[in-house]
Amino acid sequence: MRSSAPPAQPQPPVQRRLTEADAVDIWMAxxxxxxxxxxxxxxxxxPRRLYEIxxxxxxxxxxxxxxxxxxxxxxxxxxxxxxxxxxxIPRSPALEGQLExxxxxxxxxxx
Length: 111
What we know:
Layout: H1 20-31, H2 36-43, H3 47-55, H4 62-73
């Protein structure tokens, strides 16, 4: 006899505040090429929180701690990673450029 109950859906992890220890682990995971999706599932956080850590706006000292930990735990990777901060790439073009061509300027009077 079949059950009429739908199959159980996996429950999302409970969201919690990230700590500095989490931030160090998130930096390490970035350098070890752990997928962003897996990090979101592991920490139950909004993806923007990961980028705040990677940009250095949240837990700014965590990157240096993670670099030291990486050199200790994975000495062969230290020279092969990009330890830099995340750089945002704007989706919309900059408002600068040739817009000054549309400025209305006073035209000299012709005689």
